[in-house]
Amino acid sequence: MKEQQQEQQEQQEQQQQVQLLMINDNLGELPERKLLEGYGIRSFRSGDETAWERIVAASFGGEHSFEREMAADEAYKPERVWFVTDAAGEPIATASAWYRPQWSENTGYLHMVGLVPEHAGKKLGYAISHAALLQMIREGRTRAVLHTDDFRIPAIKAYLGLGFVPSLTDGSHPGRWKALAGVLDRNFTARGAGGAAVDIRP
């Protein structure tokens, strides 16, 4: 019980930090999609609002409103919201091919990536993120960015596999990525100030 409370406290502290930024500068080199048999991928359909809210609540906690957080956003288009479905056709993971005006016109924003815990460990986060990135390509985007948190280890592994690299935009980022390099037991080549390559090792 104490370990669980400590883990929750650490996650809350991490959520209060500046989020980690990751960049994929070449969506043209996107690797192939990996999806286990029994799962499907499709874009948003009328009536999926409740499924989206269920998935996001299971992933991030709290209550979420599709209307307020997605449909009311100027970037919203139904074809930008994607789902992985289970064998019964029920949505169980989601990601969105969003756009944020602070990034250049050719840059998509990978938004609201979530998965119900019961289906974790099957690379579905990779698959649904891949679907959203393909949507960006269809819209003419050539690069993508995303924000994430230190404790979302499976998501970070998926993003690295999709060609994203760390971007060091905050003074806390080098140390945090060094810690993640230790957790993941791998080296990173991050982007530093001015786009310079920075090697990060455990």
From TrEMBL:
Entries under Gene3D superfamilies matching the protein: 3.40.630.30
Species: Paenibacillus lycopersici
UniProt-recorded Gene Ontology molecular function terms: acyltransferase activity, transferring groups other than amino-acyl groups
Transmembrane segments: none
Protein name, UniProt field: GNAT family N-acetyltransferase
One Pfam short name: Acetyltransf_1
Alphabetic keyword roster: Transferase
Residue stretches making up the N-acetyltransferase domain: 39-187
